[in-house]
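Readers outside the structure-tokenisation community will struggle with the description of the input data as it stands. What matters is that the chain and its backbone geometry are given together, residue for residue. For illustration, here is how one protein appears when written out as sequence plus structure tokens:

…
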Amino acid sequence: MHSMKITLIGAGLAGCLLAIYLARRGFSVQVFERLPDMRKHAIPAGRSINLSLSARGIHALQEVELYGKLEPHLVAMPGRMIHGEKSELLYQPYGEDPSAVHYSAGRGILNKLLLDAAESAGAELFFETGCAGLDFGNGRLFLRNEKDGTIQGQTFDTVIAADGAGSAVRHAMIEQRQIQGSDEHLAHGYKELTIPAGPNGACQLEKNALHIWPRGGFMLIALPDTGGSFTCTLFLPYAGPLSFETLRDEKSVLNFFATEFPDALPLIPSLSHDFLTHPTGALGTVRCFPWHAGGKVLLLGDAAHAMVPFHGQGMNCAFEDCAVFNQLLDKHEDWESLYLAFEASRKPNTEAIADMALENYIEMRDAVRDPKFHLCKKIEWLLEARHPQRFISRYAMVMFHRIPYAIAQARGAIQSAILRQLSASIDRIEDVDLQLADKLIVEKLMPLSKEESLP
């Protein structure tokens, strides 16, 4: 395998991380990226959104010794700050354990660190060169010069596509009937906005929190930046009475924010300009199968399993892909068996997190306003303390552990049923029937094994 050249499509987060793993093993790696080198050019609008970094992503960055370099640029978020319709605030920690923290990370800063590390490891990076198609029968890759539009073909040994949700490689595989796939689009889109820092770089909101303005059918969120600003994202239906369709001018935008987000409005001085000029992003889930074509082509990260961002796991899941791929390299001597094993390992887990991410949108925009939701969170913490080897909240399993997503989903369904039963007729944590709780947990949840705690 080491005698063959690996062609990576996409120099985003997953592509660069995988290039680091591979180049450090001594593989010859070429990376082709459609966009200009972000270390020399401004990041295009809509690509600077902050990301949530949690246990799975941290583990992968630690493996390639980059987490220490990123750490000064992270902002800890140990809880969510919920902004009510009358500007009332409710802070909800993610757990009672100090490790229940995820971090706001700037996409640009992280991607630049990964680009530098990939180059230092020996990977060759080619920018403004996008994939224009593949000829699977003859093993040829067609690359487009994004400056002049010319297309050149070249042979390849094996191609790994990490070119995102709109993957050109995946589309080529579908068109040539190598795989089947679907894009499941939400009826909601998103718009990126900014709350700037106050005087002397002061934060205008609580710094160490994920801020959420839940409004049932839509929501606004804000993630902190190290410089005191916040990256905001409005998630809103495309059409309907309150939608991007109805917010077409300055007056309608300002009136909408004054009504729905009155405490956020004065914090976004460029609101109307940014709202009307920034692109409206699409939200959707990519599902396809298989992820590979023999030993010639493999899809990885968002190219294989893009998901909606409501569990903060898109990047973390893609990084976990890279870490698992690296582990599997030690067990396989040809690309096809490696790609089959990778797909078998990751497909069930990525399906699980894609479904959980969709469910979490409802939680973030609506359920967090329900007193019963907060009661169940308190019951979760109580049960975690009583049964630490059996009961871990689904959110914690996803965010703060490396328990496989499919296991988190399955155990989470059982735990949710237990919580509904325990909370059905009470309004206070003091009234929980602990004897019943202990009985249900012991009967329905086996202790987590060591094998279940790691991907």
In short: The chain has a mean pLDDT of 94.
